[in-house]
Design goal:
The chain is mostly helical. The protein has 10 helices and no strands. Helix 1 packs parallel to helix 9, helix 2 packs across helix 9 and helix 2 packs antiparallel against helix 10. It is globular, with a radius of gyration of 18 Å.
Length: 203
Amino acid sequence: MTATALLTLIGLQTLLAISPGPAAVLTIKTAAAEGARAGIFLSLGLAIGVVIWAAAALAGLSLLFEFAPYLQTSLKLLGAGFLIWVGFSLWRGADRPLEDVAAAKRQHPFRLIRLGIWTDLANPKALAYFAAVFTTIMPTEASMGWTLAILAIIFAIEMVWYTLLSLVFSRSGPRRAYIRAKGWLDRLFGALLALLGARIALP
């Protein structure tokens, strides 16, 4: 594993993490509605989800898709359905006051972690990156030690970024701004997630 390959991998993984998508939307909403603690548990799930994709890619995900293209299609459709469901849930709860949302969604940490995992497993951006790009950067001769180190780096990048989002949007200023704009923001986020899911599902 050369230094150039490692730096390239870190740079691309960081760009993947900070680019807008379903994970960022849910992190911002969760942190604003339920606080930093809930956002951090969600972040943990998001980081685990990305590591699962990376491990699957290292185990031969792209090769599997070549032999079974229907599997890739099935995963895309499942992901699309999940995003549509999340978008519909956001839209449906748009008019609920934030305090009521916090009370109704004071979820167990494991539920937040599970939601984070499923959100990243349903993310088409992650599917495309790890199936088509990540495997071309990773050298085939990488040792087990390097492989585990890279998975740890990927986990750290995702965890740090979404934790930062959680800490920022759980603060009083961003939270007050979210409260003022909650109705149309939730509808906007919900519509964007649903449209993204529909776009993935359609050929």
